[in-house]
């Protein structure tokens, strides 16, 4: 698979040249707090989403298969199964200039970390937070890239739980953690 990015221009100055046509694997387990560049072929950005006249993010738009990229910062790691970890990053309001999240169709895309000037594969896109609903019974569910999910019901297994808190609760995404797949 060719991971070359043709247009790598970032107003933040973090990306200045194309990736090579292959990437080494990121071996260390110190991803939390590190920046990532994520590539996928998910949906377009949909309509802005409002709740109580406050914009919370965007709905997922149509699927078009176009390659897109963005940046984020890994904020956590989860053990999904034995020998299978997931990295986690959130869509934060006022975050990075080119901040991204994932949507349907981004699974199988790549999450890279810049390791001393060399881009290395840190994860493979796997999952996103959601679905969401305005109703406790989960009726009329929707998916979106949300930087604040408070006031909505989030699907957790077969249950719908009201998202609360004093600080914004952003939606996030989960690449598989390459470092947990490497033999030690």
Can you tag this structure with a few keywords?
mainly beta, disordered N terminus
Put the structure in a nutshell.
The protein is mainly beta and 184 residues long.
Can you describe what's shown?
This protein is an all-beta fold and 184 residues long. The chain has one domain. Helix content is 0%, strand content 45%. The protein has strands spanning 24-25, 35-40, 43-51, 54-63, 68-73, 76-81, 84-90, 110-115, 118-128, 132-133, 144-146, 153-156, 159-162, 172-177. Strands 1, 2, 5, 6, 7, 8, 9 and 14 form an eight-stranded mixed sheet that branches. The protein has a three-stranded antiparallel sheet with strand order 3-4-11, with no helix packed on it. Strands 10-12-13 form a three-stranded antiparallel sheet, with no helix packed on it. It is globular. The relative contact order is 0.23.
Percent range of helical residues: under 10%
Query: What kind of sheet is the major sheet?
Result: 8 strands, mixed
Write down how many β-strands occur, each being a DSSP E stretch of 2 or more residues: 14
Helix/strand-derived category reads mainly beta
Low-confidence stretches: 1-13
SSE string, helices as H and strands as E: EEEEEEEEEEEEEE
Mean pLDDT rating: 88
Q: What is the percentage of strand-forming residues?
A: 35-45%
| Number of discrete helical segments | 0
What sort of overall outline do the alpha carbons produce when their principal axes are compared?
globular
Rg over C-alpha atoms, rounded to the nearest angstrom: 17 Å
First and last CA, distance? 26 Å
Question: What is the domain total for the residues?
Answer: 1
